[in-house]
Design a protein that fits this description.
The protein is 32% helix and 25% strand. The strands form three sheets. Strands 3, 4, 5, 6, 7, 14 and 15 form a seven-stranded mixed sheet that branches. A six-stranded parallel sheet has the order 10-9-8-11-12-13, with helices on both faces. Strands 1-2 form a two-stranded antiparallel sheet. It has 339 residues and is of the alpha/beta class. It has two domains: 151 residues, Medium-chain alcohol dehydrogenases, catalytic domain (Quinone Oxidoreductase, Chain A, domain 1); 156 residues, 3-Layer(aba) Sandwich (Rossmann fold), CATH 3.40.50.720. The chain is built from twelve helices and 15 strands. The protein binds NADP nicotinamide-adenine-dinucleotide phosphate. The site of NADP nicotinamide-adenine-dinucleotide phosphate has 30 residues, from helix 1, helix 3, helix 4 and helix 12.
Length: 339
Amino acid sequence: MKAVQVTKHGPPEVLELAPLPDPSPAPGQVVVRVAAAGINFADILMRLGLYPGTPKPPFTPGFEIAGTVEATGRSVSAPRGGERVVAFTFRGGAYAEKVAVPADRTWVLPANMSFEDAAALPVNYFTAYQALTYMAGLRPGERVLIHAAAGGVGLAAIQLAQLAGAETFGTASASKHDFLRQQGLGHAIDYRSEDFEEAVRRLTNDQGVDVVLDAVGGSSYRKSYRLLRHGGRLICFGMSSAVGGPGRSLRALAAWWNTPRFNPLDMMRKNRAVIGVHLGEMGRANPALLRTWMEEMFRLYAAGKIKPHIGRTFPLAEAAAAHRYIHDRRNLGKVLLIP
Ligand SMILES: NC(=O)c1ccc[n+]([C@@H]2O[C@H](COP(=O)([O-])OP(=O)(O)OC[C@H]3O[C@@H](n4cnc5c(N)ncnc54)[C@H](OP(=O)(O)O)[C@@H]3O)[C@@H](O)[C@H]2O)c1
């Protein structure tokens, strides 16, 4: 079979399609023939060597796939051979024609769900759900600010925030604002031409917001924190601002350097919470939780209440172009690789 490998840390061109032996299922595993694999921002950080726990190259990146079960290992009762599944791979390996995954990290697809939609669910929707519903407990009438609102997690968050009855604010490049309004975003902010903190103050009569989803990181965390009103929750879940140069650039160092250290006494006085979200660690610590979250996503999907937006698909062999596309901030929603 063929798989994409990060041959060394660096720009998108370090991704190469390579022949690898077909995987065989260990006990408790199934082998899935991949129909679609999701690309996530974490893959970009891993390619650059900026993601904690990145394996040494060469390695195959990617955390989510949808496809058909081709083989099952010993002691696997479900899913069965031939069933259509979505899987969260946890340890990477998704940019491949075939992937071996633990059976208990797969879900059999509802009949009406395409492989593309399924591959766009696990990381984006689990993260948005963990952040907004599980950790922040978003309530009707609250205001939520979503950074990178036109990205994969961002669009999932807009949909879930609307379901919760919240008022939505989102930052994105200006070219994406019309699309975001069509998706139901209440207030679009062009963070590249206007300071987002000032924009939110202007739009809220200086009141601020109740919840912020911030994966830009660095100094953005500080500004987002300042925007919280009493009872507010800042969800810290990424560091996109570390990406800019070709590798471990000065920009990455600046992002880490600018990351604030929050003061519990200040949080107490202002009734604010700072909450960390790491989906992978949550899934490792409590796999049963992810099973219930996917059941909830399937239910919402069937009811027409969530729908992944597939911005673009690329053939597996063009993984480098797909990474370049996200790196250049051109994606609207999910980008998928199709073997
Ligand atoms: N902690 C967790 O468990 C977890 C899980 C999933 C994702 N995340 C994080 O959530 C964020 C969003 O992930 P995603 O997969 O949905 O990606 P995404 O939002 O689709 O990523 C690309 C978008 O991010 C925006 N962006 C902001 N700063 C950027 C920069 N320096 N370089 C490139 N793009 C930048 C761009 O949109 P605009 O130009 O419109 O701003 C770009 O189109 C990432 O930081 C990711 O690491 C964390």
